[in-house]
Amino acid sequence: MSVLSGKKILLGITAGIAAYKSANLVRLFIKLGAEVKVIMTPASKDFITPLTLSTLSKNPVHSQFYDTENENELWNNHVELGLWADYFLIAPATANTLSKMSNGTCDNLVLATYLSAKCPVYFAPAMDLDMYKHPSTKENLEKLQHFGNIIIPATSGELASGLFGEGRMAEPEDIVSFIENDILSKLPLRGKKVLITAGPTYEAIDPVRFIGNHSSGKMGFEIAKTAANLGAEVFLISGPSQEQIKHSLIHRIDVVSADEMYKAAHQFFPEVQMAILAAAVADYKAKNVSNQKIKKKDATLSIELEPTKDILASLGANKENQFLVGFALETENEIENAKSKLQRKNLDMIVLNSLQDKGAGFATNTNKITIIDKDLNEKIFELKSKEAVSIDILNEIILKLDA
Ligand code: CTP
Q1: Do 284 and 239 sit in the same domain of this protein?
Q2: Which of 182, 355, 360, 367 sits 20 to 30 Å CA-CA off 59?
Q3: pLDDT value at position 158?
Q4: What is the CA radius of gyration of the chain?
Q5: What is the CATH number of the domain that holds 115?
Q6: How many Å lie between the centroid of ligand 1 and the Cα of residue 328?
Q7: In total, how many domains does the chain have?
Q8: Which pLDDT band holds residue 163 (cuts at 50, 70, 90)?
Q9: pLDDT band for position 74 (50/70/90)?
């Protein structure tokens, strides 16, 4: 999955011959699962039609502050467009537009949106070789980078003038991979490996029966997805769960019992920098698993149980530099119990869910958590979707890692 999947991309087109390549750019972004809106300078419409771009982007294309043809004269709000975008790409960026951007000139919709944008701004210069070489252009390019904008350098080749040299806009495929790589290189968990446990475990009683619990695995899967979206390579060890996950950075390891989860967790733990144990591991298993289906004979049946191994505690005991996070699901004396678990299991952080909170716990799509750190500081969070909760948890971990 591309880092651009689900992202909002604003494409600003200015009046250079390379504008004809913008159609392909829109197509590539859409193919990667991004949402695209296009804005144009008025002169760029001589090079490519708004109709082409709106058809490909499936969004209206604007080039003026308000649409005169539209009887409602809808105001094209540059501030809103600037806030909407996760990434703003100006391609092609002509010498004229670069000069205006570096000076804060604001005489068209693309420039006004540029000045309003809070997101990362990428620009792909395109012009003739002598214009690209000119000291004023060089100065503008430097100034724009100094502002924090990201240049996608022009390449060398045959130019529209027939001359050969530097100034050709990078090819659409190269622009897209440049942006993808740039985003990836800046992700806060880039280069980190994370172990996550999720879901219930099933402890066999006989060949057809088991002891299990209602855990859906949702929380652990959301954490895995968020960690991967933040750049981490994830080893997701999951008990039986209906949840599906597909991400190039996630390795899913399916297990059934607590023993299998224990083995898999210990296998990956030495190579990770972080472990988040969200699984609802069975605390007990049958002491003797019957080889045959247990027949109904007596009025009562006793099965002798013995404790499973505590995976979290054993990782805590073997911890080197890993940041270890556990969960605590409590029904009473929540904070006290969670703090004691954190210390007993040698954790760096514990995430507490109280079953007393509505919307928290197992089968729901929401959760309400309190995070307790090693120094026993507590941070209470609102009831949120499990996706939002996973972002809170990882943000807290990143803050601690950076501290
Ligand atoms: N856990 C684990 N292995 C076990 C049991 C629990 O790794 N055999 C982990 C869970 O993944 C969770 C944390 O320990 O991160 C807390 O689990 P919980 O069941 O709340 O705590 P327990 O230590 O089992 O204590 P109790 O059931 O008595 O509250």
Answers
A1: yes
A2: 182
A3: 87
A4: 28
A5: 3.40.50.1950
A6: 7
A7: 2
A8: confident
A9: low
Residue 349: give the domain boundaries: 193-402
Neighbours of 186 (CB within 10 A): 10
Distance 230 CA to ligand 1 centre (A): 27
Residue 266: closest CA among 215, 319, 218, 214: 319
Distance from C-alpha of 329 to C-alpha of 200, rounded to nearest angstrom = 13
- Cβ–ligand 1 distance for 308 under 6 Å, the answer yes
Single out the residue in 136, 166, 185 at which a domain terminates: 185
In whole angstroms, give the CA distance from residue 203 to residue 331.
24
pTM: 0.83
Quick: pLDDT tens for 42-52.
999 999 999 99
Does residue 277 have its Cβ closer than 6 Å to ligand 1? yes
Question: Among all residues, which ones are annotated catalytic?
Answer: 213
Residue ID of nearest Cα to ligand 1 atom 9 = 312
- Give the closest residue (by CA) to ligand 1 atom 16: 328
Ligand 1 pocket: which of 341, 352, 369 to mutate (most atoms <8 Å of CB)? 341
Residue 297 falls in which region: left (phi positive, over 0), alpha (psi -120 to 50) or beta:
alpha
**Selected residue with higher pLDDT from 402 and 361:** 402
Q: Are residues 240 and 166 in the same domain?
A: no
User: What number is the average pLDDT over the span 17-29?
Assistant: 97
Residue 3 lies in a domain: no
Q: Are residue 208 and residue 138 in the same domain, yes or no? A: no
In the listed set 150, 185, 220, which residue is the last one of a domain according to the structure?
Answer: 185
Residues 375 and 355 in one domain: yes
